[in-house]
Amino acid sequence: MATGVDSESKPVGATDVFDANTPEIFCSVKLSNAPSDTEVLSEWVYIKGELEGVTDHVIDSFPVLTDGTRYIEFSMTRPDNGWPTGEYEMVLYVDGKAKVTLPFTVGGAADSFVTTGPSASLSEATMTLGVDSQSRPLNPTATFSVDTLEIFCSVLLSDAPEGTSLLSEWYYVSGELQDVTDLLIDSVPLMASGTQYVQFSLTIPDNGWPTGEYLLILYIDGVEAVSLPFKVQ
């Protein structure tokens, strides 16, 4: 999920949190080794939120016939009255079979980040396989393999005064470890200021990542700012 794509349909501005006034919401996906006339279908679903009595509503679906190995994109433009705030989901199907489910949220401008003091904010939090020299995300994903050497999160800190405190909490929610739920794996503090991308990461355990559902929570000056689910499979 992203705010845009480049000329090769690769994601630009990867995020799973959008503002109600976002002009267009994109999904970029890499298709590999597809035979001729492979159908990839995107189904956009409004799960729940400000629209009372509306749940699990299919907004629209878009099919694409393609082949080979390439990035392809899907997008939806902003409704006339803006995106209803709430939880959404996009499901990608390949030849009629559900392959990927991508949750994302839409909030008002005040819901897209958390502010502390007069101006500091966190935004653009992205789970990713790596970061560049400026801590911006490379290869964003919310699904990691058991042998991923290091799992990263990139987040944009804006207008932070000197001494702003950031904290990441990494949780194992559920999965192959029987009777283990909501386990705090580690917490990583960071002091930062100004406007910059910052990164948090966790290295692979000795025996590899247990498969299952995980959660990363980011705090700014002690206030929960972002909750990022991800999985290992």
Structure description:
The protein is an all-beta fold and 233 residues long. It folds into two domains: 109 residues, Sandwich (Immunoglobulin-like); 120 residues, Immunoglobulin-like (Sandwich), CATH 2.60.40. Helix content is 0%, strand content 70%. It has no helices and 15 strands. Strand 6 and strand 7 form a beta hairpin. About 5% of the residues have low confidence.
List the total number of helices: 0
Going by CATH, what is the homologous superfamily of the largest domain?
A: Immunoglobulins
Report the oligomer. Answer: single chain
Average pLDDT taken over every residue: 88
What is the element string, with H for helices and E for strands? EEEEEEEEEEEEEEE
How much helicity do the residues have?
A: under 10%
Number of strands: 15
Offer a few descriptive terms:
233 residues, mainly beta, Immunoglobulin-like, 2 domains, 8-stranded mixed beta sheet, 5-stranded mixed beta sheet, globular
Summary, kept brief:
The protein is mostly beta strands and 233 residues long.
Give the topology:
Elements: E1 2-5, E2 11-14, E3 17-19, E4 24-49, E5 57-77, E6 86-94, E7 97-107, E8 115-116, E9 120-131, E10 137-140, E11 143-144, E12 150-175, E13 183-203, E14 212-220, E15 223-232
Parallel strand pairs: 3-7, 11-15
Antiparallel strand pairs: 1-2, 4-5, 4-6, 6-7, 8-9, 9-10, 9-12, 12-13, 12-14, 14-15
